[in-house]
Amino acid sequence: MSTATHEPIAPPSRLLLLAEARALWETGAGLAMWPLLQLAPRGDGHPVLVLPGLVASDVSTLLLRRYLCSRGYDAHGWGQGRNLGPRAGVEDGMVDLLKTLADKSGQKVSVIGWSLGGVYARLLASAQKDLIRNVITLGSPFSGSPRATNAWRVYEGVSGQSSHDPRRMKFVEPTPPVPTTSIFSRTDGVVAWRCSLEKTGPQSENIEVVASHLGLGAHPAVLYAVADRLAQPEGAWKPFNRGMLGPLVYPDPDRDA
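RE: above sequence
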């Protein structure tokens, strides 16, 4: 789902699409660096809702959720099977789960969305901002043309809907009214990286990593950045500090943007 802009954005090249096979290596790297990733800041126990990408299920976010639990969060999958687009009942189901998590914990919920899941996360934030602590998206296409991805045909096939969805995107494209982080990769083989660029502001930022699209949920640099963002005290949001490893692990997201 996306909207057209004045300058069309091309989808990632076939070479980048083929390079998505490195997601297996990135998952292995995430597991190998698990002990070091425990050095990330611990959380305060607030609930985190993790939304999967197109045609993926909660299985795809299992490693990410387990990592968040190890850092002290109450992480949950979305519980709706495979993500086949915004079919009847899907959006209501996410809202119901969000309200349940907030009611049970007495706290606001952080929402993480991978790819299409990030589009959902931004849609939730536009309608339920009082229940959401922050939004983190991973390689999510929330701006640009719907055909600036290599997944639009799959989306239309499994959802039975057009990828051109201005009714929803008018709520998705604007920066959410809560602290927002977009994690993206210029070597993403599925979503054109420019479609994942957030407008930076007092509560919004971009974090660039060098990763595949399919490996974003397991890449060690992503896991650390997510933990760092979630650990911020509520109401005291600050931009991500790329630190000494910035040029190697977290490149400057503003270069040639």
